[in-house]
Amino acid sequence: xxxxxxxxxxxxxxxxxxxxxxxxxxxxxxxxxxxxxxxxxxxxxxxxxxxxxxxxxxxxxxxxxxxxxxxxxxxxxxxxxxxxxxxxxxxxxxxxxxxxxxxxxxxxxxxxxxxxxxxxxxxxxxxxxxxxxxxxxxxxxxxxxxxxxxxxxxxxxxxxxxxxxxxxxxxxxxxxxxxxxxxxxxxxxxxxxxxxxxxxxxxxxxxxxxxxxxxxxxxxxxxxxxxxxxxxxxxxxxxxxxxxxxxxxxxxxxxxxxxxxxxxxxxxxxxxxxxxxxxxxxxxxxxxxxxxxxxxxxxxxxxxxxxxxxxxxxxxxxxxxxxxxxxxxxxxxxxxxxxxxxxxxxxxxxxxxxxxxxxxxxxxxxxxxxxxxxxxxxxxxxxxxxxxxxxxxxxxxxxxxxxxxxxx
Length: 408
Prior knowledge:
single chain, mainly alpha, Dna Ligase, domain 1, two-stranded antiparallel sheet
């Protein structure tokens, strides 16, 4: 056997691996970290969003007033303590983000619905969708009656420092937030009246019997108290304006009542003969022209009626028994209206002589117009309202003695 020849092995040349540049390796690692962190961040955002939009803990609607002067964090904690939101940190963070877009949290009284999410709560508080209240002031109320009404509104704050001047308030429905001071609301009512008068004053006819804004409000207050029928206001205003132009006394019963009870606005009994004769600055049976000031707070319609009275020569009106009035130009027409009204109501006629039916008892009620109070401006069927010319002609059928005493 021949000796085997030795096998010579030649090692293959080693192939050196190419390594990536250090920068690429760092970028790759950073990318992995970024993807990981992004996934974590996305998960956190998703969790926050789910909690932010999920139904809240309230099982029933709840009214809560967010106090003033609280910071964003304090508001969030207060809402959490009240059981309105579930997480103060999420709410505060969302409110902070919202603030960059101009959305500020507004304090006030809110009614949060059941299951309101933090998103719903933030939307409400940012938009200022707080609770509001309203108070309605009827036309023809005195200023004292208005103050009494505001004192009954428990949502208002403070004490009325002074009863506003009669006629300075505009009757309307006013909306306010809890905690508004009564003085501030009264000031708003007066500002509304001033604004209305400034706007409407230019409409006053050049030949009007009223010359100042005070006189305008005074006459409008009488018109307001004399009729509760809206379409009659311009006619009633025309009657009084015609009387003023003819130097006739107004002879308005609501003015008598105001002279007796003032801001109370209501007389607890029918007008008596002695009260009809009583000298007060507001008794338009005893004084010439307008009383010294308004007898109530007239509404816009009554003011407009004085500014644009009906074009008529009427100087009398009497209740027609159906809520309105019958108007007349002459005393004969007026007496006929009175007689017709009495016939409809089954009342006997009255003596023809003015003094034949004098009331022996000075305190006996006079079946004149019933006291007119807010909400009941129309005389009752048993007590018609009569306007009388001055002076009363003799030998006329005048049903005044048992209703109102004529001027001698």
